[in-house]
Design a protein that fits this description.
Blueprint lengths: L1 E5 L5 H12 L3 H11 L5 E7 L2 E13 L3 E11 L8 H15 L4 E5 L11 E2 L5 E3 L8 E5 L2 H4 L4 E4 L3 H4 L2
Amino acid sequence: MIEIREERSDDVPAVRDLNRRAFWQDQESNIVDALRANGAALLSLVATLNGQVVGHIMYSPLSIDGKFEGAALGPMAVLPQCQREGIGTKLIEAGNRKLKDDGCPFIIVVGHADYYPRFGFKPASEHGIKCEWDVPDNVFMLLVLDQAKMAGVAGLAKYRPEFSSVS
């Protein structure tokens, strides 16, 4: 049985190892560690199976034109041997629901164009929102959580500096 819960301090080593194994490099682990160390984790959830951390998702602050605050989803990782079992789906659904309940107006993700639309994400360009990085239009996506707060919001989306400064 998969349990989704907020990350605890004793999960940090397992989350680091999980990200390293899922992405085959240290960059995502380093970003997660830097966001956490700088107090920039809006929400950090883990998925556990029999007490072992098998999945992780982190959300951090993101701004549009420096005026509108929302959340960036990512990194999100699941242990390779546990992928395609719905763990990522459970993490995203739980995280998105929590942020919506907390009044977050939107979530942005740079992710797989065939995966994230199932959660309601659409190309951010449809809302006049552009990414600070040169990424394909179909992988830079937006999920509107509060239509009223998003009325007229457009511009350049800026991630936390950890995403660009950590390698």
